[in-house]
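Researcher: Quick test of sequence recovery. Tokens follow.
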């Protein structure tokens, strides 16, 4: 059996202020740094063969304390990058509500059907993330565990792939900062999601 922990990055000021981050490269805030430090104890009982992050700073900062404690050099993978909100990247939800309330509603109720003039749509993001995820699992040795620090949107898309549910359901899946999704893969039965939005011990 192989075990994959998908961890959302720690809190940023943009998270706290209600700003869509997307591909914006925001660092952790003070709370996010504390959440990242807490991962060291939360993951204490799990032997990790590798730690992966996206190429955005908030995931690299989230992984840093755990990686240092384990003596592991995190591997940066652009395939784990967040989804893009296109022209609304870096904009406050209140601003979008004022300028384009229908689009804001659709982003959360039927996201796969919204054109945000983004560098890639959600289907492309899901394809990118899934290819990266499967590649990591294929390289794993049996009975090992890895940890991937990624983003709320991208992890939700991966869960949609794992559970074979439409992308339009992605925001119905809660995922707090530094919460994790635990996925196991067995040779006989394939993938299974064991935990979702878990803030406890890994």
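Model:
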């Amino acid at each position: 059996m192989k075990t994959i922990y998908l961890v959302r990055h720690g809190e940023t000021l943009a998270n706290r202020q209600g700003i869509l981050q997307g591909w914006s490269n925001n660092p952790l805030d003070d709370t996010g740094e504390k959440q990242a430090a807490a991962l060291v104890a939360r993951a204490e009982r799990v032997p990790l063969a590798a730690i992966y992050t996206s190429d955005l700073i908030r995931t690299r900062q989230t992984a840093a304390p755990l990686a240092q404690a384990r003596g592991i050099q995190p591997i940066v993978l652009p395939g784990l990058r967040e989804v893009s909100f296109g022209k609304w990247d870096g904009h406050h939800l209140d601003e979008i509500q004022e300028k384009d309330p229908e689009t804001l509603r659709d982003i959360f109720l039927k996201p796969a059907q919204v054109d945000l003039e983004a560098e890639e749509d959600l289907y492309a993001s899901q394809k990118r993330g899934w290819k990266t995820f499967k590649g990591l699992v294929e390289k794993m040795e049996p009975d090992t565990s890895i940890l991937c620090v990624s983003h709320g949107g991208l992890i939700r898309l991966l869960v949609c792939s794992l559970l074979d549910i439409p992308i339009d359901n992605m925001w119905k899946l809660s995922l707090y900062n530094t919460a994790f999704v635990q996925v196991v893969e067995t040779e006989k039965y394939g993938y299974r999601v064991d935990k979702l939005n878990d803030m406890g011990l890994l």
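The two ends are 16 Å apart (CA to CA).
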